[in-house]
Amino acid sequence: HRTAAVIPAAGRGVRLGPGAPKALRALGGTPMLVHAVRAMARSRAVSLVVVVAPPEGAAEVRLLLDEHTLPDRTEVLVVPGGETRQESVRAGLDALPADVTSVLVHDAARPLVPVDTVDSVVEALRAGAPAVVPGLPLADTVKEVGPGAPGRPEPVVATPERARLRAVQTPQGFDLPTLLRAHAEIALAGEGATDDAGMVERLGVTVVVVPGHDEAFKVTRPLDLVLAEAVLARRRA
Ligand code: C5P
């Protein structure tokens, strides 16, 4: 029984503004991707990390990872990604050796996830859950909006009860055969998903939520970079 982590890092990160692919941007002087790989490697359960790189940047990513220190027990593979996050994750899963039974899928864009969050996901998998996501209650009330007239304010159609909602993060943990089946069946149906657990849910498999962490936030917009730098500075103080 071996647990591997797959890190999709092939996105361009357009919402962050112009510049290098998001995963290669520096945080505290170190590329975001290196932080993300270290965050997975810090867990004793993880002995293999598969990084899914931009197709044209795989060689550069390999060099970059070789330049940075990682725990000795961690093996790191780099494979080229695809057009969508889903295709990139699939490329990472296809690279896993046969002895891997569980997988954590972790966004490169969540570089600061604490090891305790990673370990709680692994623990729930070991306790028998086929799919596990870290999640947090929401501070904001969420509205569902309907299609409105072009150029007019959007009409609200529903307000889900906030106490029952969770904002989900990564790493998302899976029994590997279950995630492979989800990828095969959902891709066959031509459907997309914004996270891996969503695909597993569509198989009718129960996904469980363990507590997430504020520091597992996704670096998406410019303000998130400011927050990430502040979190790193506080850790180093
Ligand atoms: O775009 P979003 O923030 O949802 O991306 C989440 C993660 O998926 C990022 O780490 C990004 O690099 C990755 N991704 C990918 N391949 C794509 C698109 C996104 O690996 N084609």
UniProtKB/TrEMBL annotation:
Pathway per the UniProt entry: Isoprenoid biosynthesis; isopentenyl diphosphate biosynthesis via DXP pathway; isopentenyl diphosphate from 1-deoxy-D-xylulose 5-phosphate: step 2/6
E.C. designation(s): 2.7.7.60
Catalytic activity of the protein: 2-C-methyl-D-erythritol 4-phosphate + CTP + H(+) = 4-CDP-2-C-methyl-D-erythritol + diphosphate
Keywords tagged on the record: Isoprene biosynthesis, Nucleotidyltransferase, Transferase
Residues under site feature: Transition state stabilizer: R15, K22
Pfam families for this protein: IspD
Single GO biological process annotation from the record: isopentenyl diphosphate biosynthetic process, methylerythritol 4-phosphate pathway
Residues annotated as site: Positions MEP for the nucleophilic attack: R162, K218
UniProt KW Nucleotidyltransferase keyword: yes
Gene Ontology molecular function, alphabetical: 2-C-methyl-D-erythritol 4-phosphate cytidylyltransferase activity
Similarity comment: Belongs to the IspD/TarI cytidylyltransferase family. IspD subfamily.
Function: Catalyzes the formation of 4-diphosphocytidyl-2-C-methyl-D-erythritol from CTP and 2-C-methyl-D-erythritol 4-phosphate (MEP).
Protein name: 2-C-methyl-D-erythritol 4-phosphate cytidylyltransferase
Lineage, highest ranks first: Bacteria, Bacillati, Actinomycetota, Actinomycetes, Kitasatosporales
The gene coding this protein: ispD
